Fold these 4 entries.
Entry 1:
Amino acid sequence: MKVVLKTEIPDLKLIGRGKVRDIYDLGNYLLIVTTDRISAFDVILPNGIPYKGYVLTQLSKFWFEKTSHIVKNHLVTTDIDEMPEVCKKYKDILEGRSMLVEKAKAYPVECVVRGYITGSAWKDYLKTGKVCGISLPEGLKESQKIEPPIFTPATKAEVGEHDENISFDEMALKIGDETAKKLRDYAIEIYNYCSKIAEEKGIIIADTKMEFGEKDGEIILIDELLTPDSSRFWFKENYEVGKPQESMDKQFVRNYLETLDWDKKAPGPELPEDIIEQTSKRYLEIMEILTK
């Protein structure tokens, strides 16, 4: 599969190009094409990751289907043959990396659920004993399980800007108290349900972020779901409290970038071939484990 960093489809109307996805307007629907671009610290890196767009699309499809009994989602189909005729002309570009989805008005927040204390949450906890304003018990160790999982929303940043953690009250001011509670409850229920499925396959979902939108007055799940871009995956058999865990997700790239003298501003540094290959391998492996 050829690495795709950018799509150009003259017969379709491009309405957005995000950190990873190119979005086309098909009238009643949107076509979301997941490229092989990778971003870290909200900066798009120069290199693509082979098979990344395919993995994100297939994993999102898997989880959307698994969670549709909890809340509706925007997925119509990932099958090019079931898409409008104009898409079939570009099958070689779109195959395996595209979703035809319902249009929805996205809520301007990232719904983050944390089941283990790691990453920025661990750093916050060491400084304040809290994560996004939520007090946690004293004496927690790095990578320890948080029971019950906590909901820590964030703003949804534009390309080149940074997501910022916000309190639940700040989220409620943005979208309304009732809606905020519904999004929180959906996000936690999805996390708990999918974590059980993943653990049966030997994978811990340490944390994840998801997005919701509104369609015809109803809340639906949108964007991507439980992919290596939006979640931290750890091997259950290697899990050990008190230290960082081996990462089967984008954290692997972040860890490499943290070793560089880079100010985390655009332009991002080139990734070495071995980091690209290892990242691709990890993405494919986690997809195969979770979807088989």
Note: The chain has two domains: 13-103, 106-250.
Entry 2:
Amino acid sequence: MTARVTAVSLSPSHNFSKRTQFEIRLIAGLGVEGDAHAGEKVKHRSRVRANPDQPNLRQVHLIHTELFEELAGKGFAIGPGEIGENIATAGIDLLALPQGTRLTIGERAVVEITGLRNPCLQLNTYRDGLTEAVLDRDAAGELVRKAGVMGIVLTSGIVRPQDAITVALPPGPHLPLRPV
């Protein structure tokens, strides 16, 4: 399967869920135009309280729709935008990408992956037990965070459902994704 966008979402306010759109505009150095989390400096409330001057490494939240299917098997009916992502994808293992991977989305938008979304307790507020449902353990017992990846916008562009996604890995050695 070719990697592609399945849905795009944004919210102008700090709501947990984001509304699906026909398209979103990514703005280099800022994020999703019109989204509450767009900006050069961090916009996530908990991170602003900790240090409002830190760079915004969470301009765009991407999540794999395969997670929605996995969650459905656990009794959670989750659709695009409901758990705060801007771009839902299919056919790409986002969690396996190394730091610095660049995704060309659509005709020209480029997003650089900065790290993992750290699932927060707001997931449980949305649906009881959802935080635990997006966490797992690997064979070595290490925590696996499945709630998507975060990135910064390097090149502006329009992103629509069905847009292709091209992956460019950074030069090695590759660093695994960590929460940002």
Note: Helices lie at 45-50, 65-73, 122-126, 130-133.
Entry 3:
Amino acid sequence: MSNPSKIEAYFKTEHPFKDAILTLRSIVNRTALEETFKWSAPVYTLDGKNVAGLGRFKHHFGVWFFNGSLINDKYERLHNAQEGKTKALRQLRYTDVSEIKEDELLYYLNEAISNQKKGLEVKAAKPSKNIALPVELTQAFSEDQNLEKAFKALTPGRQKEYAEHIASAKQEKTRISRLEKSTPLILDGKGLHDKYKNC
């Protein structure tokens, strides 16, 4: 499906917040942002840069701001929905269409657009180069040089994901099981969570 057809399919899907999401869309589309489709949801860009996105969940819906932490939160409405995991993302969260205030939403959208035009963005923290590897993984490297080579070819973020995934198991047999399941992915150059990141 092309982007336009994916976008239309998203907005035609029946769910409890369908009308509310369409209301948000109509307001966002009054701005200079361009509507695209990424990560299975509508994303709004300016000069190819992600500025905002719409999201619907089981109990709420809302508007994401990719550099929302830089927005002056005049109405004190922005949420960090992934506390501790993101420095930049913020969300306007609603549970009913009646909560949507057009002037309020336009304020946040225009703030985000203004920041984007100024080139303001939150820089991602560089991952630490020192990743603590679990014993099971280092032992596997000593037995399989191809595995070690493939692991070192991964990005630091992916290396950390595997190391923490294996090390976080309390029992040795679980750590070994996780290592065995991770090995083909590592050899394939894939991250632990790549299948969830596909657009």
Note: The longest strand covers residues 49-56.
Entry 4:
Amino acid sequence: MKHRIVVLGAGYAGVYAAGTLARRLSPADTAITVVNAEPDFVERMRLHQLAAGQDIASRRLTDIFAGTGVKLRVARVTAVDPGRGTVWMTERDGDGLPHELPYDTLLYTLGSAVADHGVPGVATYAFDVAGRPSALRLRERLDTLEALGQGGNVLVVGEGLTGIEAATEIAESRPGLSVALAARGELGAWLSPGARGHLRRAFDRLGITVHEHTTIEAVEPTRAIGADGASFASDATVWAAGFAVHPIAAASGLEVAGTGRIVVDGTMRSVSHPDVYAAGDSAHAIDGNGRPLPMSCASAGVTVRQAADAIVGSLTGRKIPSTSLTYYGNHISLGRRDGIMQLVDGEWHAKSWSVRGRTAARTKAGILRGALWGVAHPTFGMPKRRRRLATGLARSTERVAV
């Protein structure tokens, strides 16, 4: 009987992992299934561009996995039962009823979604760029504002990477709109002095108004309300004030951190259920400095490589390579022709130097192209002879059947 590997989520981490496992494990011993709510791969790192009005081609997951042996189930995960080794899901084009999918090894890469922090009006009136449908909804709203020909006010809430990229992209792509950003602290406070100055000059060049030390406590149809009662006109409020993971992991009985992320060891294996691994935003993985890695594309890359190596090693009886779980910094796009590449030290303090301007923009564009190419070719270089499973790792007869 084949060992059943189920990968939940087909973002960058999930697609990379499934392709790596298909490339390195023998299909005679393993059956790999990917479960994803949508039929297309979403370039999440470019959704702010999509919202701003740029065209981003989607890729069908069936095309990506064609010829790999990976089976795709387009379904929404509703629950995980690690005690029984099953996933509950609702098929996208099915009967609407929950169905069971058994596994022997589970890789959880469901990622994250926007966090409203309980702020009134966010769920009803705000927009976000955390998913393709929501980014397209924002794009439609911005199109409407431009069509009215009366300007229009856009307020981006959040001074993190997503907020900065969304504000600059919208301002550059839609100069007829008035764009502002509400920051809880100082804009770019975590950057080096040179990078911080560059960021402020970019905002000035693009005409973006910055409201520092401003906490938004309510969102209404045409304005946002600050903690001090100040009113900010907004025909489109873009919420970029943080992300949260889906509560599925916490509800499953897996050990999770206070954030709901799955607590894993250095190999990305659940500390409570050895048949479960996690990577990307879903994993509570500890950096060498003792702190959990932040939710970021950089963290996703290092954790999913470690998870894939660990699964292959554990199933084939080989030594599991150890990846350095280190956070190195971020690339920030400031529109299409400007950017910042800021590296950090072991304590996540910004290093004194940074790459800025067109060079940083081109570097990030190259990274995104490379990531997309890797997704589109998940089994590039697939060996003719792939590794067989170690003796005794066939499918457990104690697992329930579909």
Note: The first strand starts at residue 3 and ends at 8.
